[in-house]
Amino acid sequence: MQLWKGRFQKALSKTTNDFNSSISFDSRMYKEDIEGSIAHSKMLGECGIISKEDAAAIGEGLKGILADIDSGKLKIDPEAEDIHTFIEGELTARLGDTGKRLHTARSRNDQVAVDLRLYLRREVKEVKKLLYGLLDVICSKAEEYAETIMPGYTHLQRAQPITFGHHLLAYGEMFKRDITRLDDCAERMEVMPLGCGALAGTTYPIDRTITASLLGFKGIAENSLDGVSDRDYCIELASALSIIMVHLSRFSEEMILWCSHEFKFIELDDAFSTGSSIMPQKKNPDIAELVRGKSGRVFGDLMGLLTVMKGIPLAYNKDMQEDKEAIFDSVDTVKMCLTAFTPMLDTMKVLPKNMRKAAAGGFINATDCADYLVKKGLPFRDAYKATGEIVALCIEKDLTLETLPLEEYKKICDMFDEGVYEAIGLEKCAYERRSQGGPCPDNVRKNAAALRAVIPTE
Ligand code: ARG
Question: How far is the CA of 48 from the centre of ligand 1 (A)?
């Protein structure tokens, strides 16, 4: 059934119908479509555009359809052009002429725009919930490993000692920002497009503020052309979701490195690893790899949306039907990735001894050795040079800063004394980094508590 077949002599061929139809992917918005239609019909009734009786009957009819789809009694017709057509058709089948009044002062263009906003508004809440769950696990792990020494890296070279808790909380900050980005995006979704009609509003005396308040929107689209053709909120959401995937992907990459034999900082739980069909010894971090890999499709969705939108003239064009699969896929993917990632992180086994061992190699305390001389009065640049020479000497003698004898230190700079060994102790190096935002255990505990405060308690 097409809503528009009056002016046509021929029906669409089966292949064209399949090509044109969006029911296979927009049927997931049936709740929102019905919600929007109920509000629209109420408004029509209140404004005297249809009778109160018709409005009430339409409302009841739509609720019946909703209940029947929910219960499985009513199957969505896969041949329908889209979910809007299907539901209106079903309503008319149930109510006759009364059902046919629903679409007064409305177009599918403003209808699909409101449906999508309603749908995504809900999904944003779901993604946020999952992010809060992840933050919670990050905070617990950070608190648990607030004192665990590990090497901090730049260029993937051991750089300075930090705490594992501090490293985890770096991701906490990223996900906290992600939540605020979702909030910003949700705020701009709070604009109600119904009443924009096909593109140019309507001559009926509608009151859009009624529909907006029934649907819980904060405002209405102020320009009818923009109202039906704005998909910025999809692009913004896809960008926010892409950034979440960047974070998840970096975190996954680190977990993959950490559970390799080269690092061995963590071990993933069996439930989040897989074996190899040929190599019996293998325990592969497939879940982390998949999360890393799935970032690609979310970025692709964003690119798709940008490309679909960039060249279309105002107002609605059918190109815009392509928005849905992209935005649905990115929402689904992010939800799936968060659902897999959080328990993987929660159940990982941390191997502090190996982290410490790695931190003890690679002259990770060289900066602290230089700082020790600075604290004794040497300018930093001179202290840096002297320490560089000491590192070179250690490499030559196959020693570490801890095992190099004091006489050797003194040969390079006579300001060294016994105190140097304490100053370059790993715990000291990490725990004394008390500057705001630094890795010392007190900061980790404080920051974890602050991050936790972001998580709603309900
Ligand atoms: N299925 C369409 C979409 O997703 C609904 C809007 C159809 N409007 C139209 N003028 N053909 O965009």
Answer: 28
Q: Give yes or no: 261 in active site.
A: no
Burial tier of 391 (Cβ tally within 10 Å: 0-12, 13-18, 19+): middle
Say whether pTM exceeds 0.70.
yes
**Exactly one of 24, 51, 260, 276 is catalytic; which is it?**
276
The two tokens of residue 167 are 């490293």
Asked whether 382 and 371 are in contact (CB, 8 A), the reply is no
CATH (domain of 90): 1.10.275.10
> Measured in angstroms, how far is the CA atom of residue 106 from the centroid of ligand 1?
13
> For residue 129, what are the domain limits?
109-147+160-352
Note whether 218 and 366 are same-domain residues.
no
- Over 70: is that where the pLDDT of 56 sits? yes
pLDDT for position 1: 65
316 C-beta closer than 6 A to ligand 1? yes
Task: Compute φ and ψ for 242, nearest 5 degrees.
Answer: -65, -40
Instruction: Indicate the pairing of strand 349-350 with strand 149-154.
Output: unpaired
Query: Tell me: the pLDDT tens digits for 412-424?
Result: 999 999 999 999 9
Q: Tokens 């009734």 — which residue?
A: 45
- Mean of the per-residue pLDDT values for the chain? 95
Q: What confidence tier does 281 reach under pLDDT thresholds 50, 70, 90? A: confident
Please give the distance, rounded to the nearest whole angstrom, from the Cα atom of residue 323 to the centre of ligand 1. Answer: 11
d(CA 38, CA 210): 12
Task: State the pLDDT at residue 325.
Answer: 98
Q: Are 212 and 279 in contact (CB under 8 A)?
A: no
Angle at 305 between CA 301 and CA 310, to 5 degrees: 150
Confidence class for position 315, pLDDT limits 50, 70, 90: very high
Q: What is the pLDDT of residues 320-339, one digit of tens each?
A: 999 999 999 999 999 999 99
Determine the residue of 106, 321, 328 to mutate for testing ligand 1's pocket, defined as the one with the most ligand atoms within 8 A of the Cβ atom.
321
CATH code at position 265? 1.20.200.10
Written as one string, the DSSP assignment of 120-157 is HHHHHHHHHHHHHHHHHHHHHHHHHTTT-EEEEEETTE
Q: Output the pLDDT for position 276.
A: 73
